[in-house]
């Protein structure tokens, strides 16, 4: 949770989670500034709702080969993820 508080844009940068604003009584987008105001429990629920925390898969690529010329990360479901179609990797679709 400390990491999320230090780098709040990991929760608000690519996504637009919403919260109920008590002051305006309306739903609005969560901002990076809001992260610091959340309780630990609220923050844990938000993180669990956005990220599927699981095992880490480390891979090694040879320098300047295979098209991976910079550090990057990949977040995706695999065909072996429970509830996913083993042919498509998604919850639906058929094997052809």
Q: What report would you give on this structure?
A:
The chain is of the alpha+beta class and 96 residues long. Helix content is 25%, strand content 8%. It has four helices and two strands; from the N terminus they run ααββαα. A two-stranded antiparallel sheet has the order 1-2.
Summarize the structure.
This protein is of the alpha+beta class and 96 residues long. It is 25% helix and 8% strand.
Keywords for this structure?
96 residues; alpha+beta; two-stranded antiparallel sheet; 4 helices; 2 strands
Percentage of residues in DSSP E strands: 5-15%
- Uncertain spans: none
Largest sheet: 2 strands, antiparallel
Q: Whole-Å distance between the termini? A: 43 Å
Task: Give Rg in angstroms.
Answer: 18 Å
Widest sheet, order of strands? 1-2
N-to-C SSE string, H for helix and E for strand = HHEEHH
Instruction: Summarize the amount of helix as a percent range.
Output: 25-40%
Overall geometry: elongated
Structural class: alpha+beta
Number of H- or I-type helical stretches: 4
What is the arithmetic mean of pLDDT?
77
Q: Quaternary state, please?
A: single chain
The tally of beta strands, per DSSP, is 2
